[in-house]
Amino acid sequence: MSESSKSKSSLNLNPSPTLQCKDLHEYLKSRSAQFLETLYNYPTICLAVYRELPELARHFVIRLLFVEQPVPQAVVTSWVSQTFAKEQAKACEALSELSVWQEAPIPGGMPGWMLAQSFKKNLKVALLGGGRAWSMSSSLEPDGKARDVAFLDAYALERWECVLHYMVGSAQTEGISADAVRILLHAGLMTRDAEDGSAVITRAGFQFLLLSTAKQVWLFLQHYLHTAEKRSLSAAECLAFLYQLSFSTLGKDYSTEGMSNNMLVFLQHLREFGLVYQRKRKAGRFYPTRLALNIAQVRGVGAAPLAAPAQARGYIVVETNYRVYAYTQTNLQVALLGLFTELMYRFPNLVVGVLTRESVRQALRGGITAEQIIHYLEQHSHPQMLKSETGGIRTSSMLPPTVVDQIKLWETERNRFTYTEGVVYNQFLSQADFVVLRDYAKQQGVLTWQNERSRTMVVTRHGHDDVKKFWKRYSKSS
Amino acid sequence: MADDDAPSDSSLLVIIVDTNPNQRYITEDPKVLTNCLDAVIAFANSHLMQKARNELAVIGCHFHKSEYLYPTPGKPLDVRQIDGQYELFTLVEKTIKMRLVNLIKSQPPEEKPGESLLAGAVAMALCFIAKFRREATPGLRITARILIVTGSSDTAAQYINYMNVFFTAQKQQVLIDVCSLDKHLSLLQQGCDITGGLYLKVPSLEGLLQYLLWVFLPETSERTKLVLPGRGRVDYRAACFCHRELLTIGYVCSVCLSVFCKFSPICTTCHTVFKIGGPLPIKPKKKKMKV
């Protein structure tokens, strides 16, 4: 028989990698407990982490906030009704994962929960006051050339679009700094062209473009923080500063006084991406823009658009006959639309396309998910779409339900295969040998597939060693 | 009340604080008001802390008028960060305290404090909610609720006004929560029951903030998952329109459903004249005919 003739079938498990966008919770989860400990020294981070927690977890935190001694776990359990025990377990897990609370024994031997000291202290500071002011000191005399909100919005949008335009390589903008290019390359959103070394967009890059602006900024900053450590910037300090920005007030100026040199460098980077506005490099004051404020809201981006600046109003109308009308002039938006629609006509201010099975499948092949397409259409839908009724059908989306369903169906029809890695065993000499090995594999729970007639079986990858050993023992003894 | 199970994008909370100086706990020790107010402000800020898009309004309710304490009409105060507190929270705290001082100062000096105008304040809150909903971005899911924090005693003088605002709130899918600091309030409890809100009489004023955070902070969708104090039995007695007394049995106008404790030939609300039939005619006994 032929254990020797096993052939490895190593399939690519994930044929079209989809861009991962972690939220703050997942990002923090992936970091060490020590890193979290330093983070919780900043009231802003505590505030942001609190907002990212599941609902029930927030309830637990707020009830424990003013309790000084550990609280029995059984008591915490009794706060939630029995029918929602699963959600409660999830909430407890989230709190432990982020080390917001720790297990603490209670005199009497019962296990108890206690909020992490620094987290508790700093959340209280953020909520009720006290402690030191955040590092952006605000003792400034009024700015002679104060900027209003509309100006800041326009500025932020222009800077951010600059990055996006650079990615699609449209010629209508000036370039961006080497640092920004390095981040794009690091994130895998762009790659060096093999021939002339110029940066070109990747598939992941196109998926990035389909995200909402808030998510784009957050993803970009995540990669920035990854590379930050190499440039002797502390990620914790940067993150704390980012959240300070996100909890500042739009249209107000803040002083750069008292900021460390590293933070001033960071500020200049943020200025380049449009997260803050500064008139001059040495101006001594800066204005946070809406981009910075939205970092804290990555998670809440549902059907409803953020209070978007007037220029970024939706421009897409989708009809039940799968036609897509986009009132736009920029090449970027047309190129994005072209990813998943078949473009039909182009007018000076209007592009008409149609969603077809072929065009959507092509996008899906490129690793774009149906969810991303639907979300993009929703996010940029024309104000008129928001007003229109969906013919009495209640949906969470303002798009025609038929279109949404069909796009999802087109996606699921591609997902008829599930891939698992495994090892094939075949050419057994006797039926008995086959049956013994098959039953053993089945017992171990590592059998993926078997066929008695052709005496073939497939064992999962991690079960292979075990089965091989068993087979050696078995063939020796017999 | 709302039929959605999904948590909303934004939740609007309107807090009505009763600042009437003739509440018992204030007349006993005026300093307690400051403590209670601090608790309410901390609670208001915790509401804003829940989600970035949560909204807040605070209405002060006095015996001569009700007024918005937060947000201020017109330009907001120019508040800069002083300590580690989130700037928005500082703004809320400063605004409420400043406006409350103005409200208390504006009370007419010679008048004896009367009853708090709670029903009017609720009506103001409903107006605020309606306006907020109208101006919100389309597609945004908003839930709204009202929290009344009061130590006044129960009177039936505003019975009709109360009932009007309760049913309006029910129609607008606005929850009314009541936190009573002193006595049991049967009328407001009815309002909670009608609109699906929670009623709690705080056993001690020291732990006010904890009670507020425990019972009133969770959103509607969250409340079903938590173990919260039971609704209990609700006293549904109506007040008569003539003497404002709570009744178990009374007379009801057949046209406008006004309630009276004594019979009157003309309805004072809709001026219907009732025909009095006099005592029911007694049927003459039929004489048994002997055959």
TrEMBL record, chain A:
Record's protein name: General transcription factor IIH subunit 4
Domain Transcription factor Tfb2 C-terminal: 405-472
Function: Component of the general transcription and DNA repair factor IIH (TFIIH) core complex which is involved in general and transcription-coupled nucleotide excision repair (NER) of damaged DNA.
GO biological processes: nucleotide-excision repair; transcription by RNA polymerase II
Cellular component terms per the entry's GO annotation: transcription factor TFIIH core complex; transcription factor TFIIH holo complex
DNA repair found in the keyword field: yes
InterPro entries linked to this entry: Tfb2_C, TFIIH_p52/Tfb2
Quaternary structure, from the entry: Component of the 7-subunit TFIIH core complex composed of XPB/ERCC3, XPD/ERCC2, GTF2H1, GTF2H2, GTF2H3, GTF2H4 and GTF2H5, which is active in NER. The core complex associates with the 3-subunit CDK-activating kinase (CAK) module composed of CCNH/cyclin H, CDK7 and MNAT1 to form the 10-subunit holoenzyme (holo-TFIIH) active in transcription.
Keywords, alphabetical: DNA damage, DNA repair, Nucleus, Transcription, Transcription regulation
Cellular location(s): Nucleus
From TrEMBL, chain B:
Gene Ontology biological process terms in this record: nucleotide-excision repair; regulation of DNA-templated transcription
Top-level taxon in the UniProt lineage: Eukaryota
One annotated GO molecular function: zinc ion binding
InterPro entries, alphabetized: TFIIH_Tfb4/GTF2H3, vWFA_dom_sf
Pfam family, one: Tfb4
Predominant cellular place of this UniProt entry's protein: nucleus
GO cellular component: transcription factor TFIIH core complex; transcription factor TFIIH holo complex
Cellular localization per UniProt: Nucleus
Annotated keywords: DNA damage, DNA repair, Metal-binding, Nucleus, Transcription, Transcription regulation, Zinc, Zinc-finger
Primary role: Component of the general transcription and DNA repair factor IIH (TFIIH) core complex, which is involved in general and transcription-coupled nucleotide excision repair (NER) of damaged DNA and, when complexed to CAK, in RNA transcription by RNA polymerase II. In NER, TFIIH acts by opening DNA around the lesion to allow the excision of the damaged oligonucleotide and its replacement by a new DNA fragment. In transcription, TFIIH has an essential role in transcription initiation.
Subunit structure and binding partners: Part of a TFIID-containing RNA polymerase II pre-initiation complex that is composed of TBP and at least GTF2A1, GTF2A2, GTF2E1, GTF2E2, GTF2F1, GTF2H2, GTF2H3, GTF2H4, GTF2H5, GTF2B, TCEA1, ERCC2, ERCC3, TAF1, TAF2, TAF3, TAF4, TAF5, TAF6, TAF7, TAF8, TAF9, TAF10, TAF11, TAF12 and TAF13. Component of the 7-subunit TFIIH core complex composed of XPB/ERCC3, XPD/ERCC2, GTF2H1, GTF2H2, GTF2H3, GTF2H4 and GTF2H5, which is active in NER.
Family: Belongs to the TFB4 family.
Name the record gives this protein: General transcription factor IIH subunit 3
Gene source species: Spodoptera littoralis
